[in-house]
Design a protein that fits this description.
With 290 residues, this protein is an alpha/beta fold. It contains 11 helices and 11 strands. Helix 8 links the parallel strand 7 and strand 8. The radius of gyration is 21 Å and the shape is elongated.
Length: 290
């Protein structure tokens, strides 16, 4: 059973477990005395060695911390189990506000699910979110975004908006990495566009990866898009049909982009999970350690 009383990050707290957890997000392999000293120095708290040891013992027992000799670090297995739990929750959870436009009020919560009714609505909302995140990154957030999906349908709906967004990301110092898991002509065209904009994009044919899910990791924020199969089937057929942009039917892509459906847009901010996802994706798909 996963312990879900997750330590709170980014909030004022005097909970010793939270303080231990927060310190170990920045430094690995610290002893109890080192953690005690860090808490006293960083938080100006007069705390005892025994209180810190008790907090560490609890976190270790819950599987949150890993012990090596006399030193502790955050347990990666716990992170992956937590990720798996949330992945299942996010894709099955059927509530959420139905929206058509972005406002800054929508990103005040660290976790939220929204429902979009068309690909066109999703494209506009998604772009606004990504621009907002670029404008509101904290100084300590990694200015790297990792993105994966299967079909670059948004390029066909609103190319101008997409190029403007990633020119803006480049201006803000955010480097994007894209992976698309279908080696198709329209995807190749999109990959070339992203690379010309100064980002890094590639194709990796892999039909085993769920084509109804897309992922963004932007700084400390994780975005998951869950598409209904009916709209994915329409997009797949379109991408498999056309060899280049000159051949494609604008009437057809317009009809697809305005087809009514239920698309889940899931967003949550978690520095630990974002860091773990980004590092693993970058190592796996770009052979980079960041």
């Amino acid at each position: 059973m996963i312990e879900l009383s997750i330590p709170q990050l980014g909030e004022e707290t005097r909970n010793v477990k939270d303080l231990v957890f927060s310190i170990l997000t920045a430094e690995r392999f610290l002893s109890i005395i080192e953690l005690t000293n860090r808490i006293k120095k960083n938080y100006n708290i007069n705390i005892t060695y025994q209180a810190v040891r008790k907090a560490i013992d609890t976190l270790h027992r819950q599987g949150v911390l890993l012990k090596e000799g006399k030193k502790y670090s955050i347990n990666k297995e716990w992170i992956f189990k937590l990720k798996s739990f949330f992945d299942n929750l996010l894709t099955k959870y059927d509530s959420g506000k139905e929206i058509h436009a972005f406002t800054s009020d929508l990103v005040k919560e660290n976790y939220a699910i929204y429902t979009l009714s068309t690909l066109y609505d999703l494209d506009n909302f998604w772009n606004d979110i990504l621009k907002y995140l670029a404008d509101h990154m904290e100084p300590n957030e990694k200015k790297i975004a990792f993105n994966y999906g299967h079909y670059t349908w948004w390029m066909l709906i609103n190319l101008g908006s997409e190029t403007k967004l990633y020119e803006y990301h480049k201006k803000k110092g955010i480097l994007n990495y894209f992976v698309f898991f279908r080696d198709l002509p329209l995807n190749k065209w999109s990959v070339r566009m992203y690379n010309e904009l100064g980002h890094k994009a590639k194709l990796l044919e892999d039909k085993k990866i769920d084509e109804t899910v897309a992922i963004n990791v932007v700084g400390d924020t994780i975005i998951q898009i869950k598409y209904p199969k009916v709209i994915v089937n329409k997009v797949r057929k379109f991408f498999e049909k056309y060899k280049n942009t000159q051949e494609m039917s604008m009437k057809e892509i317009t009809q697809i982009s305005h087809t009514l459906c239920e698309i889940k847009f899931i967003m949550f901010k978690n520095p630990i999970m974002a860091k773990s996802l980004r590092e693993n994706y970058m190592k796996k798909y770009f052979s980079k350690n960041i």
